[in-house]
């Protein structure tokens, strides 16, 4: 019984928590319309922006919903999204 309790305890001890990384869903208005994206935009005062790795020159604002408000972040530059 003690071995089971210890095994459970060790499983929680090995969880890698990265509390600084806050990935959330947002929306961009892409070339084909509104697209749902997952982006790392920790809470802050700057506009959350992203770009796809295949086209660094096209930067998108990230919205909370289609035609909604732009998410705010502490990032000072756009986030790269792998595509």
Protein described:
With 83 residues, the chain is mainly beta. The chain has one domain. The protein is built from one helix and seven strands, in the order αβββββββ. The protein has one helix spanning 2-13; strands spanning 23-30, 33-40, 46-47, 49-52, 55-61, 72-73, 79-81. The protein has a three-stranded mixed beta sheet, with no helix packed on it. Strands 1-2 form a two-stranded antiparallel sheet. A two-stranded antiparallel sheet has the order 3-6. A hairpin with a 2-residue loop joins strand 4 and strand 5. The longest helix is centred in the N-terminal third of the chain and has 12 residues, at 2-13.
Keyphrases for this structure?
mainly beta, 7 strands, 1 helix, 83 residues, 3-stranded mixed sheet
As a percent range, the share of helical residues equals 10-25%
**Helices and strands, in N-to-C order?**
HEEEEEEE
What percent of residues are in strands?
35-45%
Total number of strands: 7
Distance between the termini: 48 Å
Strand order of the largest sheet: 5-4-7
The radius of gyration is 18 Å
Number of helices: 1
What value does the average pLDDT take? Answer: 83
User: Biggest sheet: strands, sense, closure?
Assistant: 3 strands, mixed
Coarse shape: globular
What is the number of domains? 1
């Amino acid at each position: 019984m003690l071995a089971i309790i210890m095994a459970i305890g060790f499983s929680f001890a090995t969880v890698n928590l990265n509390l600084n990384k806050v990935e959330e869903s947002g929306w961009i208005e892409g070339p084909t319309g509104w697209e749902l994206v997952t982006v790392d935009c920790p809470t802050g005062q700057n506009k959350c922006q992203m770009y796809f790795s295949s086209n660094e020159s096209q930067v998108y604002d990230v919205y909370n919903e289609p035609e909604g408000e732009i998410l705010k972040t502490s990032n000072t530059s756009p986030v790269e999204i792998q595509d």
